[in-house]
Amino acid sequence: MKVDGKAYRSIWLATDGWSVEIIDQTKLPHEFVVVTLTSAEEAAHAISAMLVRGAPLIGATAAYGMCLGLRDDPSDAQLKATAELLINTRPTAVNLRWAIQGMQKLLGPLPPSERVAAAYKNATRICNEDVAINSAIGDHGLKIIEDIWYGKNQKGVVNILTHCNAGWLATVDWGTALSPIYKAYNKGIPVHVWVDETRPRNQGAHLTAWELGKHGVEHTLIVDNAGGHLMQHGEVDLCITGTDRTTASGDVCNKIGTYLKALAAKDNNVPFYVALPGPTIDWEIDDGIADIPIEVRNSHEIEYVSGCNSEGKIEEVRILPKTSSSKNYAFDVTPAHLVTGLITERGICAASKAGLAELFAP
């Protein structure tokens, strides 16, 4: 995608051919800062501190983190240590485990002298495949938006509600939930996006609004609990969210608050779709509520907010009484029965074991 006319991915190799550059998403929307990663420890910090976030981008960053960790020591011990370092950064996004286990499977049988080159080649492949996957998700999701547009006799706009950030900043490029929106916009379909602020880190306000604005897509920021009201008054034609992990039975785990949007959509007969790449499916579990580990992040994130003051400086202020406690659940699980369909790179299917098996049968 483009930022002020220049094409960017969310992660790429630096000109030296080995270090890795990322966009520091904790600085957006007020500053556009590129950070260079030169070690596995820096890659792990980027994931845990959310300089990068979104399941596909976490997986890509972990893959390059494996490359960085082996540059000076490609031994068996270092391969294991680097994998353990990275896999412990965040528990919920399944792409993290998928990327690291894939690297271990590939690199383990190779002699140490061949591991670094093979690691970089595979990390680059993961990134390029992610771009192709997300573009395909956009193509399939575009058909849903087109049907709504033609159902309106090509009048007005198609109003889409999304939660958190599942755009190109959450992937290597294109995004998942936003990919169909970008495809529709590029095709000339008038779309308008209701952007949930997505407390506590405000990824909707900070990231989704920023990238939609950079691309020229009409959007309006709303507080997290306004979605149901808008649906009751016919202001939402479609909901599309992303997911950090999808079970084999079609349950989806996404940013906290997604479940409530799905309940509101069900009550108001608004289609609720979830866009996901195949690597986000966890084929090892069926019951998302019981079996998906839900990350509990530092409570500092909900006790303080940061923003740009009138002098143009970024500052942080406390919003919670010092005598009050807090708990910061980062994700929730939306049961499959609340999901209208899953938009994947292989097509759209029912949120069910049979639906997923039909598209992803071995």
Structural class: alpha/beta
Distance between the termini: 33 Å
Compute the average pLDDT: 96
CATH class of the largest domain: Alpha Beta
Give helix % range: 40-55%
Number of DSSP helical runs:
12
- Radius of gyration, in Å, reads 20 Å
Quantity of strands, as a count = 20
Roughly what fraction of the amino acids lie in strands? 15-25%
- Name given to the CATH architecture of the largest domain: 3-Layer(aba) Sandwich
Q: Strand count, sense and closure of the main sheet?
A: 7 strands, mixed
**In the CATH hierarchy, what is the superfamily of the largest domain?**
Translation initiation factor eif-2b, domain 2
* Unreliable parts: none
Secondary-structure blueprint of this entry?
Elements: E1 2-3, E2 6-7, E3 11-13, E4 20-23, E5 34-37, H1 40-48, H2 55-70, H3 76-87, H4 94-107, H5 112-151, E6 158-162, H6 179-187, E7 191-196, H7 203-215, E8 218-222, H8 227-232, E9 238-241, E10 245-247, E11 252-255, H9 258-267, E12 272-275, E13 281-282, H10 288-291, E14 296-297, H11 300-303, E15 304-308, E16 314-318, E17 328-329, E18 331-334, E19 341-344, E20 347-349, H12 353-360
Parallel strand pairs: 6-7, 6-9, 7-8, 9-12, 10-13, 12-19
Antiparallel strand pairs: 1-2, 3-4, 4-5, 10-11, 11-18, 14-17, 15-16, 19-20
